Amino acid sequence: MSAFPGSPRILKGGIVLIDPDTSAVKRVVSLQYNPDTLTRTLSVQSMAAEGGDRAEVLRLKGPPVESFKLEAEIDATDQLETPDQFPGAVQSGIFAQLAALETMLYPTSAQLRANDALAAAGTLEIVPMETPLALFVWSASRIVPVRITEFSVTEEAFDPSLNPIRARVSLGFRVLSVTDVPTGHKAAGLFMNYLQQKEKLAGSFTAAPLSALGVTGVP
Length: 219
Prior knowledge:
Elements: E1 14-18, E2 25-30, E3 38-43, E4 65-75, H1 77-80, H2 87-92, H3 95-102, H4 109-120, E5 133-137, E6 143-158, E7 164-175, H5 186-204
Antiparallel strand pairs: 1-2, 1-5, 3-4, 4-7, 5-6, 6-7
């Protein structure tokens, strides 16, 4: 289905996987359709506690814990209308798109085989497998290092070979801040860029005068 020629170009949200040491891009997973809603939650990391020191009431332990939730749609219906242009959709429906998302949560088969070989050789300590760093991209102003915390797929329609052709994918992310990673980690720098972008936008906001709140000054 072609877009109206006069319509503006729509940027797609998605996930970029990078090497945390070299910043080399490993994979780009763009969402087929941008979700209609994006839910964000910020949990304040305060020093204040019930019955605690009153001197700590305004102190923060660090940035808030921020999380994102969204529901993405994947649909091969339009592609199946032009099979010559999309042979992959004819052969396997949306399996490829689902696999691109799902394998973000897995260690690679090469990593698993390597660990099996180490275990068989009697290695006493096997280092846990490290995945690429995931960046949630939602416009040029919101590029955030994240850890995927939730993933569920509801497959809603199938072709005659039982390949899924339509699905809803629910994704949850936790933002990785400077308190989550070692000093100098790539995610720390990306988080600081994200925070500075927030501060820049906040500084451009024109606040209402106190008189708009019905007061003339702070007592």
